[in-house]
Amino acid sequence: MRETLSDELLELLGRERFIAFVEAFGGLRRFIPATKRDEEIDAAIGVEASARLHETYRGCYIRVPLARELRARHYRNLGMRDQAIARRLGITESGVEKLFRRAGHPRRPRRQASDSRQHNLFD
To answer: Whole-model pTM?
Structure first.
């Protein structure tokens, strides 16, 4: 058994479907019906993934995680900038930087325009 609900859901749904599930319901407590699948969940993650979720958690409430660190890494791998990541996660740009720092990810280098007439003082 996995350590956290996030780990269990990630294994059950796969990365893409897990991220879609968290984007749709993250931070909410969600009831998984015992008899009939939830149409909102079907629409968010697809019928096949929804069937697996319902089979595993039928008749239970689950607290859908926010999974901010995993989502931030996913968004950065898609090439998104920190500003866009912050908007998607509902946090500040500083919060995004802290997420990456805590996880040990290198900071993205900042682009600086250089002027050929400017001397570099640190060479």
So the answer is: 0.78
